[in-house]
Design goal:
The protein has about 300 residues and is an all-alpha fold. Helices cover about 80% and strands about 0% of the residues. The longest helix is centred in the middle third of the chain and has 39 residues.
Amino acid sequence: MSQAGSHDLKFGGALRLGFFQAVSLWQSTVLVVLARTIESLAGIAFAVLIASGHTPDPLALLVAALGAWTAALVFSSVFRVVAVGGAIRQGACRMRGMPVSPLWIEAGAGAARSLLSLVWAFWLEIAVTAWKVLMMVAALWLYGEALLGRVGGVVPSAALALVLTVALPLGLMLTLWTELALVRSVLCDRSFRGALLEAATLLGRRFWTLLGLAVLTGLFGQIVNLGLSGTIGLLIPEGASAGVAWISRGAVGILGAMAMVVFEMTRLQAFSAVVLDGFGALTRPPEAAPSIPVAEIVYPALPVPDPSP
C-alpha cells in the first residue's frame, strides 16, 4: 500500500479505476438509470396532462399534476442517491481488496449519509442559484440603465461579462464539491458538513486531477448522448409512422441516459479512488522481489592432450 498523503494515483489511473467499477457494478448503474427514467417520464406526464387540460377546474388539475410530479422527483432522487451510496461503498471495498457485500446491504449501511448529502446539496444548489439570479438581475439592471442613459457603460458591461463568465464555472465547482463531499461522507461515515470542509481541502490538494475527471466524464457523457440522438435522427425514415418515431426516440433516450449514468458513476468512483489514495488505502499490485546476485564459479581449464601423433 502507498503511504497516506503520497498521492501516487494519477489522473489516468483514477479514471481507469472509476470506469472499471462503474461498468462491473452494473446493478447500481441500472438502478440509477431507472431513477433517471422515472424523472423523465414524470416530466413528460406532467407536460401532457397540463397540455390536455380538459377539466372544469384547471387550477385543481395544475395542483394535482404538480404534486404528482414533485412526489415522483423526490422518490427518484432518494432512490438514486441511496443506490449511488451503495455503489460507492462496493467500489471502495473492491479497490481496497476487501470482500464486497451485496448492493442492498451496502446501500442500507450508507443510506443515512446519502440522504443527508441529498438534503445539503439541495439547499446549496438553491443558495447558489439564487445568488446567480440576483447577480444576473443586478448586472442586467445596471447595463440597461447605462444603455438607456448612454453614460457609464464600461462598468456595467464589465459586470455583465463577469457574471456571465463566472456563472458556468460556479455551477461546475458546486457539483464537483458536493459530489466529492458525498463520496467522503459515505466512505468515512462523516457528517456532510464535515465532509464539505474535507472535500474543500482535498480540492486544494488535487484540484487539477479532480477537475479533469469532472470535465472529461461530463463531456464524454454529452458527446455520447448527442451522438446517439443524431444517429437515430438519420436512421428514422421520413415516411415512418408517429409510433415508430416515438419508440425510436424513447429507446435512444434510454440509451443516452444509460451512457450519462455510466460516466456519472465513473466520476464518483474515480473520486472515491482519489480519496482512498489520500488515505493510503488503495491496494497496490505486489512488487517483484529484487533479484539476488549469485556468484559464478569459474573453474580453470584443464590441459588437453595434443591429438596429433
